[in-house]
Design goal:
Length: 139
């Protein structure tokens, strides 16, 4: 199903990261599936307490940064992501949240979210890269 058939409540908002259209003072907007996936990126990368007027908004994955790569880490990560989506993204229903540790040497978890847009049962998938270690310039 194309974005044109999505219901109006999906909405339109500022693109993330904020950007201006070339040669104008107009803010670039996103809508449809792009808007939902940008909202998921914002939700998963925001710590609770960071957003003004919404202290509960976000998904706190930072306590997991130095945990060993185990089944427990995978389960806790999946639960936190699913709970955050249920609480803060009413446009979608998470069908499956998966965590892949395929690149564990780089300290990377791939969080895959299969979701359905609630009013029309359209299924989509989004992958969020979560690094377990800080980025450095060493190679």
């Amino acid at each position: 199903m194309s974005d044109q058939n999505l219901p109006a409540f999906i909405g339109t908002g500022w693109a993330f990261p904020p950007d201006f259209l070339m040669g104008s003072h107009t803010v670039r907007l996103s809508d449809g599936i792009e808007d939902i996936e940008q909202s998921l990126r914002i939700l998963l990368s925001t710590l609770p307490g960071e957003r003004a007027m919404r202290p509960d908004y976000g998904c706190d994955l930072t306590p997991l940064l130095f945990e060993p790569l185990t089944t427990t880490l995978r389960t806790v990560t999946e639960d936190r992501v699913k709970t955050s989506i249920y609480l803060h993204e009413p446009r979608i229903e998470p069908l499956k949240v998966g965590v892949s540790m395929a690149d564990s040497h780089a300290g990377l978890l791939l969080i895959s979210i299969d979701y359905r847009i609630r009013p029309n049962n359209t299924r989509h998938n989004y992958v969020f890269d979560f690094y377990l270690s800080e980025g450095t310039e060493t190679g």
